[in-house]
Structures are given as C-alpha cells and as structure tokens.
C-alpha cells in the first residue's frame, strides 16, 4: 500500500539547516556579550521551536519573558536574512520529492520552525513541490502535540491511516503517534537512531532511496 499523504518535518529531515541556525544563535550571543555555542550544542537545542532554542542558548539571567522576546526579535531579524547562506537539501531528497509528486502522493511540511521561515525556506529550496506547508503559528501548540499535524491533514482531506509522518527526532515520532499516523525516522538528521527507536518509530530510513521504498510499499 502506497501512502496517499506524506508529511515531512523540515530541519534535519528535508534540509540541513543547522549551520545557519548556529550562526544566527552565535550572532545574537556575540551581540549581547554572551558565551557562544558549538554546532553540536545548538544541534541538541533545536527541534522544539524557536522559543525553546532562545531559552537554551540564553544565559540563565536573560530568560525572563521580556528579555527572551527581545532576544527572539534579534534572532529573527538576522536569521530572516541569513537562513539560506549554508542550508542545503539532504542527498537524494529533491529526487525523492519529484518521484513522489509524479506518483500523485500529497506532500506537506509540518515544522516547529516559525511559520514565516518555514514557508519561505521550503518555497526557495523546493518551489511548487508541496501541497501544504505549516510552521509554528500562534495558538497551536508545538510538536509533539498532535493539533498542528491534524490541522495539516484536515487541509489535505487526509486520513490518518493513509498518512506517513517523516522526521529526524523523537519529537517527530511522538507527534505522528499522537495523531495516529504511521511514522518514519530518518537517521541523517540531528538525533540518534536510538532516540527514534525508543520513541516508537514504525520505520527507519538511512537514505532517501530507503524512504521512498517505505512510502511506496507501506
């Protein structure tokens, strides 16, 4: 059974965005005279949405709601200009999307990344490829809460039984499970194979070719 709808996470799944995220985070840190962070440290902080990233890279005494709002504005202004400097699709992903689209599969993106950034980045790297793109919007809880992914499925008239959610983190796997979809973890992203398995992933894919086979064979 081929899946009728495939919903993808963005960062660490479709695109390697971590260097641009790290650069933006460290630009904010330098601007404020704070300690900077390594790429590996930032990698451990991403995946839960921008407020969580801001909280994690900010020194403890700068984590009040007011100061975090200011820090988030700084990050957004820099990242808005520099979010395509070093970001690139993972190997095989553009071809995978083209094959699926040609086969009539509905394609969507659902990310904890801010909605405006998600839409702009997806349209830049994969123009016209996706039927629906949604990032983090006000009033809808972040993943792993299923409200957002259920909203995406409603937009596409997709049934949970015919939908696969693909992501690189335990948060993504839990999101799909909470929404009653099947889940596939990809091992090329920012989290370990072990974390995907322990979260209960139905499938694991080490390459885009493996992911395509899983989508086609169900």
List the helices and strands and how they pair.
Elements: E1 5-8, E2 15-16, H1 18-32, H2 39-45, H3 50-57, H4 65-82, E3 88-89, H5 93-102, E4 106-114, H6 115-125, E5 132-136, H7 147-156, E6 163-167, H8 170-178, E7 182-186, H9 193-198, E8 203-205, H10 208-217
Parallel strand pairs: 1-4, 1-6, 4-5, 6-7, 7-8
Antiparallel strand pairs: 2-3
Helix pairs in contact: 1-4, 3-4, 5-10
Q: Explain this structure to me?
A:
The chain is an alpha/beta fold. Helix content is about 50%, strand content about 15%. The protein folds into 2 domains: about 5-15 and about 90-215, HAD superfamily/HAD-like (Rossmann fold), CATH 3.40.50; about 20-80. The protein contains 10 helices and 8 strands. The radius of gyration is 17 Å and the shape is globular.
